[in-house]
Amino acid sequence: MSWREPSRQPVAAQVTGSSGPPASRPRSSFLHDLRIVWDERNFRRLFSTRLISQTGDGLFTAGLGGYVFFNSTNFTDPASGAVAFAVLYLPYSMIGPFAGVFIDRWSRRQILVRAALLRSVFVVVTAAFVASGEHGVPLYVAVLLVLGVNRFFLASLSAALPHVVAEDKLVMANSVSPTAGGIMAIIGGLAGLEVHVALHGGQGEYAATLLAAGGCYALAGVVSATMAKDLLGPDREAIARIRGRVLAELASVAVGLAAGARYIFRRRGPTTALAATGGNRLLYGILFLMSLLLYRNYFYAGESANKALTHFAVLTFFSGVGYGAAAFVTPAVTRRLTKPAWITLLLAMAAVLTGTLGTLFSQVAFIVIGFWLGLAGQGVAICATTILQEQVDDSYRGRAFSFYDMMFNALLVVGAVLSVPFMPTTGKSAGLIEFIAVGYAVVATGYWLLGRHSAGRGVGRDSPAAPAQQSSS
User: Fold this and answer.
1) CA 263 – CA 236 distance, rounded (Å)
2) Residue 225 — φ and ψ, nearest 5°?
3) Which of 232, 208, 63 shows the shortest CA–CA distance to 153?
């Protein structure tokens, strides 16, 4: 099970509400796109800022996750694991939709510089708590500060991108930037874990890993400072037009999220796609927590925490391979199958593999399950994102995706939290495995019965009311 957060949509759609790359765009490769946009001097600076920062994100996650779940001084219990999930994942969902209100008012270059420095300071505080063995509220407050500021940083990177590449290269830049950043986060995380294991380290080494992440954040701030203060926007006229309306706009965001949710739930195609994604995330949250507990408290209960961490890194690697494979497999498969058929197949196979292999409680079985769930989770997300882009009117698309973004991580945390009363400390529960398998089967069957008839429908055709007739926020 991977620490990596699966992407839901192209960055362009997250920032502007657009539907992403046009269907008529010729196919191209990641390296081809990178070579083209690399010619833009300011893109290279912004891109370097992202790569350095997201390497730090990987190191930070490795240091914090290793300390919380694979600390030699304690054994993780289900409740503390669920709390850690909430701290790691909810800031990205809860803060994200509201960050844009400030990103459209403040110099984005200054946000990058100051957010990087603030994160470095908060990371030092977090590392101090880790080095001292702290496991309580002070540690989680420090982590929340790091992740909250990081949300502003990542959103500013995306909002700044149109200012450093030509318009005809923007789609390529939007494709390259998050992909490369995600790869660097994975590399940083795996490097942090492997260095820690190689040093046979304890909490002091976890603290050092966190400090290395802080160093990456500081370096990212230095690189971003090489860009002109006004280069990344917003322009002064836009700021002048919206000055003094912060509270009203924050309230408008909340109203917009509700409007986006209402719009989705009035349409069968988007609703069922969202339900399939949500069901997968909820069940994945249970299995993710279970896998952490199994590796720490069952497979290696009488052995060193570092050994458990080493083998969990293997599971993380194969889950990441599955995640990456989805980007290649899904476009090829959906040229032959409908998106609802592929979503159903992915979820049905998740039910079969979890039900047949999960009860073996062997590491090989969990690696197979981890690979498939990485592929299935991202494959479902890609298809669901495309369905929303196809069937949600452009005037609602940004709000719909903001709601989708909040739901995506929130349900993973909900799954982990709901499983706590039924999850043994060792993580070994045949009953929960069977529940997860049945859950996947129910989600697959329900989606196929309700979602297949909406395949290929255009905007507004699966609802009596067209977008223009809906109330606007």
Assistant:
1) 34
2) -70, -15
3) 232
- Banded model confidence at residue 23, pLDDT cuts 50, 70, 90: very low
Taking residues 351-375, what's their average pLDDT? 96
Cα atoms in the Cβ-side hemisphere of radius 13 Å centred on 130: 32
Strands (E), 322-390: none
Based on the number of CB atoms within 10 Å of its own CB, is 286 exposed (0-12), middle (13-18) or buried (19 or more)? buried
Mean pLDDT of 214-219: 96
Q: CA of 62: how far to CAs of 70, 192, 212, 312, in Å?
A: 10, 6, 11, 12
- C-beta neighbour count of 98 within 10 angstroms: 17
Q: Residue 467 — very low, low, confident or very high, per pLDDT cuts 50/70/90?
A: very low
What mean pLDDT is predicted for residues 85-98?
76
Task: Answer whether 30's CB lies under 8 Å from 407's CB.
Answer: no
Task: Considering only residues 69 and 112, tell me which one the structure prediction assigns the higher pLDDT.
Answer: 112
Whether residue 162 has a cis bond before it, omega within 30° of 0: no
Structure tokens of 344? Answer: 């159903």
451: which 2 tokens? Answer: 């979602």
**Cβ neighbours for 192, distance < 8 A, ≥ 6 positions apart:** 58, 59, 62, 63, 66, 209, 212, 213
To 10 degrees, what angle do helices 41-69 and 203-224 make? 160
Residue pLDDT, tens place only, 293-340: 999 999 988 787 888 888 998 998 898 888 878 878 888 898 899 999
What residues have CB less than 8 Å from 129, skipping those under 6 apart? 138, 139, 142
Domains annotated for the chain, with CATH where assigned, are 1-243 (1.20.1250.20), 268-454 (1.20.1250.20)
Tell me which amino acid residue 166 is: A
Average pLDDT over residues 121-138: 92
Residue closest to 348 by CA, chosen among 367, 376, 327:
376
Cα–Cα distances (Å) from 156 to 33, 109, 153, 230, 273, in that order, read 22, 8, 5, 13, 29
Q: Quote the DSSP letter at residue 165.
A: S
Residue 386 makes CB contacts below 8 A (sequence gap 6+) with: 339
Tokens of 60: 């930070």
Going by C-alpha positions, the residue among 138, 383, 346 that lies closest to residue 272 is 383
**For the segment 44-69, what is each residue's pLDDT rounded down to a tens digit?**
999 999 999 999 999 999 899 888 88
Closest to 375 in 3D by CA, of 428, 432, 322, 335: 322
* Model confidence at 25: pLDDT above 60: no
Q: How confident is the model at residue 75 (pLDDT cuts 50, 70, 90)?
A: low
This prediction's pTM:
0.76
CA distance 399 to 52: 30
